[in-house]
Amino acid sequence: MSEPTLLDQVFAQENRQDPYPLFAEMRKTPVARQPDGTYVVSAYEHIVTLLHDPRVSSDPAKRGLPGPGQEPAFINTDPPKHDRLRRKTTSFFGPPHKPDLVASLEPWMHETVNGLIDGLAGKTRIDIVDDVAYPFPVSAICRVLGVPREDEPKFHDWSGTLIVALGARFHPEGQEEVFQKAIKASQELMAYLTDLAEAHRESPADDLLSGLVTDEDPDRMADEDIPATSRLLLIAGHETTVNLIANGMLTLLRYPEQLERVRSEPGYVIRVVEELLRFEPPVQMIPSRSALEDIPLGETTIPAGSGIILATAAGNRDAARFTDPDQFDPERQDGAEGQHLGLGGGVHYCFGAPLARLEVQIALQTLARRLENPRLVQDPPEYRPSPVLRGPIHLPVEIDAVRPA
Amino acid sequence: MTGPIAIVGAGLAGLRAAETLRREGYDGKLTVIGEEAHEPYDRPPLSKQILTGWVAADHTTLPRLENLDDVDWELGRRAVSLDLAGKKIVLDDGRAVPYDRCLIATGVRARPWFNETEAELDGMFVVHTSDDSRALRQRLAAKPRRVLVIGGGFTGSEVASVCRMLDVDVTLVELADAPLSGALGGVIGAVAADMQRDAGVDLRTGVRVDAIESDERGRVDGVRLSDGTDLDVDVVVVALGGIRNTEWLTGSRLAASALGIGCDAGCRAFDGNAIVTDDVFVAGDVARFPHPIYGYQMMTLEHWRNALIQAEIAAHNMIAKEADRRPHVSVPWFWSIQFEVNIKSVGVPSMADQVVVTQGSTADRRFVAAYGLNGTIVAAVSFNDGRYLEFYERLIQEAAPFPIRLDNVDQATGDDPVPAAFPPQSELTNRPTVVLTGHSPTEMRVERKETEETAA
Fold it and tell me: Which terminus of chain A has fewer Cβ atoms in its 10 Å neighbourhood, N or C?
């Protein structure tokens, strides 16, 4: 077997705790052809260019890859289908039709996070992931989407299996077996969501899924697209925000003066979350784009038909765009404040961004305020298997006490 | 730089220039002169949200991004002349405002209806100031019988769109073959024409308004078109573009004409001999500047974003050291919203001779069209599909070849480009306004030509 490439090394579990030196190596060849013909793009400028380039496709079917056998969700489609699906979904989630939805959840979010932290009273050792970072976003996406919270153990397993497939490149079981498991998990999840959609059709409530199934618009979403859309939102809604909260708390514990500022300065957490999306983004790369035409990029041309991996976490540390990119600095003034790639960009810019931002702002600020003298037990912590959706499995923290809300 | 600095014009460009001066450390005397009594306000909503009633006419005041409390605001005051040698601006109350550096950002005003008697009738409107917009809003809210919009440019088309939103009957008259064809060409203009007709606009192209009738109380009461048609309308909106506010500079020996005020890419005004001045700068709708990516052709752009960027660059250059000066060379953008379609443009479509739809479908009113000239892409226009325009902006910046082929992308038809069908430029803007005097070729000077217009 030949030398492992930089991408291979990024995918290797032992490098999960700190992939950034590998990303720095990667940027030395900002458009790098892999042995299998895929191109990894790691320079900030090039990633931004490709995010806006209509010749870059997100539809795996267009390069002959076998899909999982169901209708794809909008993340895996191109315009115009993408636009129809996403626009319709947006009409039950955000402006202009639902401008207040996310903001209206704020009191509930405070209550939920505080409730989770209340439950830690008396403990001196807690797990940020299991105790807050996971259950909170799951509750949020369940509420927005209209999924019963008590079904969490079911969809947690399905979702986890699907996420592992994103990192299957080096999974010990081998790609084929992982993909087979993923296909099975996807089918079961889809069946579950199809039943759930049916149930909402009969007794609708004020949630996104009910909105989709009871929509009477002439351009309503086709029935066969609804389970795939809900699957996307359910997985994305609870596999990404958890990592942003966990990565965020880990980073704040490594930078205690920042933790203190989050605790004491109202509003400071907003900058912190944006810098976290740059510095420790929960989505590290966008792995499944492809070139529909030859795309000239810098000194390279990506040939039509090639797979493209956008290494957004590498672009986020590009010194050509960010001053001192390896510094965690929520107050950076390099003209690139907020210009991170942590939420993607272009047509596929993170659908749930407003929800995720508010969740993480509230979670981090409440944790900072209520945990008395928090200390990392293990640094670095153990990481989840996926190099794409990267974050700790557990984040054990010792505390002296829990302050009242 | 110790100043004083004077800014003539209190619109978007004037305000952003004042903020930039303060932000970049100029703390000397700063005067902003504005003809309207209002604080600087935003104009795009005047033909949209204010007319629908969604936003009140006095609710578009622009936010101040810097503290400008110590600025001398001369609002409700008009500048009547500029003394280049004496470095002062004379106001309509006779006072003189001295300057060491001066920025001219006087913008445009609405072109009035040519027949002055008809223009005075009750029911005649233009849409350029917030007062204009407030007055028209009141009339539209009172459910007129039918509105006639004269001119199918962006303002006229947006007004027609608002009328349909308010369920007011509207006729739009455009002399060219299609609305928006001056800015976007006849091919894309035809899409706009379909949009208007589908929305219920009575669109009449290739005709002009010959006469506006009035009743005994001086109210608009019908119009006669050049094809002999009589229309029963009680409101007329004149949307025939703007006139650049340069007349006050007639005696100033600056390169000011109906075409705008000539300046270099650093926003420094040309004097009448087309020699660059050091202390007079220009920004916004009145600035006529060379654009390198369009063969250094001189152009004026009446776009929101251009006013903003050019004002910031002009202000920076007013107080910067020579080596730190910046050029105004970014690719132009503009947008419009009408008939529930978001139109965006990057580059300068009217420079092009060819156009091709590269993405989406005109039938769906979701598409991008690329514009080319002599084998180079010069612009792109999107209808409800603005997200990709940054890609096209980059192609324009790189002077990429045209036509670009996107055969496998987003419903592309693979069609070949067709002529973009821009109407010919009006003669009005091409008239010479100066004459050359002097005997020796090295001692020639430019003198302003006395015409009826300038003499008046």
Answer: N
